[in-house]
Amino acid sequence: MDSKSNDRSKKLATETMRAARLHGIRDLRIEDLPKPFPGPGEVLLKVAAAGVCGSDVHYYLDGRIGSQIVTEPLILGHEFSAWVAELGQGVTGLQVGQLVAVEPGIPCGACEQCLHGHPNLCPNVRFCSTPPVNGIYSEYAVMPAENCFPQPEGIGPVEGAMLEPLGIAIHSVDLGHLKPGDSVAVLGAGPIGLLIGAVARAAGASQVYMTEPLAYRREFALDYVADTALNPDEEDVVAEILRLTGGRGVDVSFEAAGGPDTPQQAAAVTRIGGKVIIAGIPTEDVMTFSPDTVRRRGLTIKMVRRAKHTCERALRLVETGQVDVKPLATHLLPLERVEEACEMVAGYKDGVLRAVIEIST
Q1: Read out DSSP for 264-322?
Q2: Measuring CA to CA, which residue among 17, 83, 28 is closest to residue 56?
Q3: Which of 14, 21, 57, 200 has its CA 20 to 30 A from that of 71?
């Protein structure tokens, strides 16, 4: 190593950044950690904005999602936009100072799933904020250059942080093979459910029926995308959707609530031969369907595992105004208040849809 490289390494070793690490259940701490630096093919990113996703809240509340368990301090967060701060060796096509949206999953590129075009199913993927891989509730992060997508003029940091959940919605609608004129039901009017409804509408859905127990979310859904928003705590949503569809049921249903009853409700409102797409993550590691419902109707059930090849499409949907993600970012908080943001989302407080952490400008 030459003297100049040695001096740079010494300087980098002393530079720090602020980050929010989960040390245990409901124990998020703002700490000073070593600032990372990019290797060949990588980019140092100055994190601009980061969304508080339901999966982050699962780790915050339970310390795990199924078999994925937090066993050591972990930086949470995976929905983010960032400014390019430094280019690693060999990186082209990006510029320092550029605002980018970031795909948070780093697939291996060599397994059967990757080779067949399904990087979201890669068993060796390194995904931000999935133990033991750190996330991005921090001032800086390093990602492969190929995971960074320049944002067009007019799409700001907060909107950029919403592109990853929009990607989940795009992938969900892709799995449903939605056709123009199809009817859909979306069970759960949280951010993912609302975005699924918006993408379904952009894809040509004729009717969007939504169910949601929280009144403020039903009201938002009606203003945002839904033709009907039903309260499962006060009415038989299955019977009502079947009534509204003349007993036929919808062409495609999307379960986006992660509740104990919603998978079966999604199946029950779907027409014979239709599709049920499961996007919600249940609190308990159990999901229940009635075999009589799914077998006799010949339903196709598909599970949403993250997103696949959606970032550029998400950017185009937002840039062209086909999907407006900004209204869903209802609360903006600084990094120092990330624990407050997690509690807000966990408790459905103050009319929250998506809380976004603003980290830098």
Answers
A1: HHHHHTEEEEEEEEE----SSS-----HHHHHHTT-EEEE--S-SS-HHHHHHHHHTTS
A2: 28
A3: 14
DSSP 121: G
CB–CB of 225/349 below 8 Å? no
Q: How far apart are the first and last CA of the chain?
A: 35
The fraction of the chain above a pLDDT of 70, given in percent, is: 96
Looking at residue 272, its amino acid is I
In whole angstroms, give the CA distance from residue 229 to residue 215: 9
Q: Is 172 left (phi over 0), alpha (psi -120 to 50) or beta?
A: alpha
- Using DSSP bridges, classify how beta strands 64-65 and 68-69 pair: parallel, antiparallel or unpaired: antiparallel
Q: What is the mean pLDDT of the chain?
A: 95
In angstroms, the CA 165 to CA 197 distance is: 13
Q: Which two tokens stand for residue 200?
A: 């379904």
Backbone φ and ψ of 163, nearest 5°: -70, -30
- Tens-digit pLDDT profile for residues 7-37: 555 555 679 999 999 999 999 999 999 999 9
Nearest to residue 193, comparing CAs of 232, 157, 149?
A: 232
Identify the bridge partners of residue 47 per DSSP, sorted by sequence position.
82
pTM: 0.94
**Mean per-residue pLDDT, 218-224:** 98
Length of the chain: 361
Please give the structure tokens belonging to residue 286.
Answer: 């159990």
Phi-psi region of 126 (alpha: psi -120 to 50; beta: other; left: phi over 0): beta
Burial 72-82 (b: 16+ CB within 10 A, else e): ebbbbbbbbbb
Question: Could you tell me the two tokens for 96?
Answer: 């320092």
Q: How many whole angstroms separate alpha carbon 167 and alpha carbon 164?
A: 5
